[in-house]
Design a protein that fits this description.
This protein has 200 residues and is mainly α. The chain has 10 helices and no strands. The longest helix is centred in the N-terminal third of the chain and has 26 residues, at 35-60. The radius of gyration is 28 Å and the shape is elongated.
Length: 200
């Protein structure tokens, strides 16, 4: 009898989802003594810890009151902030002008690129997504800037959209940004940050 019990304890772990040899008949029911239940509890604890880590990381991403106030002082500060861009994008989406910010961000990424083949690919994608008159996400560019882009497509460079990017930046700064500061999206966030400061 002792030999049979020792063989049960020393048996190598089996593939998950398959019964272990010499285990009790309750192992599939999750009894507290079987090895299968120990594995299940350990996995559950790891998943719980992972979820809590994700929640804590998400909470740490909330902008501070000082940062939220800085957005009102400078449109540039708003765009430099990851949280600021996301909140501004949420506002633009409500006004059906989210594509302006997406175009600006795509141009920022392209300016960092040095690989000619990647530049060619990104230039084509940006054109098809935001410049082509056939695109549902077409941004508002004047005819002079649009013509310059068309000519640059023959030999794309990472700065070929710079003038168009500036035009959209100016449009967002003069038009969308003041409305954003007066919107419930920004005001509610500002009030929430102030309450948090008072509570701490």
């Amino acid at each position: 009898m002792r030999k049979r019990q020792a063989a049960h304890i020393e048996a190598p772990p089996q593939v998950p989802g398959q019964p272990r040899p010499n285990t009790c008949c309750l192992c599939w029911c999750g009894c507290c003594k079987c090895l299968w239940n120990d594995d299940r509890l350990e996995r559950s604890e790891r998943q719980t810890c992972t979820k809590m880590d994700s929640i804590e990381a998400a909470e740490e991403q909330h902008p501070s009151l000082e940062e939220v106030l800085s957005w009102a002082r400078s449109f540039e500060m708003l765009l430099r902030s990851l949280e600021g861009r996301e909140i501004f994008r949420e506002f633009l989406r409500s006004e059906y002008s989210e594509d302006n910010l997406l175009f600006w961000l795509a141009c920022e990424e392209m300016k960092k690129e040095t690989n000619p083949s990647v530049v060619d690919e990104k230039a084509r994608i940006i054109y098809e997504d935001y410049v082509s008159i056939l695109s549902p996400k077409e941004v508002s560019l004047d005819s002079r800037v649009r013509e310059g882009i068309n000519q640059s497509l023959a030999e794309p460079s990472n700065l070929m959209y710079e003038e168009a990017q500036l035009q959209i930046y100016t449009l967002m700064h003069r038009d969308s940004f003041p409305r954003f500061l007066n919107s419930s999206v920004y005001r509610d966030l500002l009030a929430s940050r102030r309450r948090t400061c008072l509570d701490t």
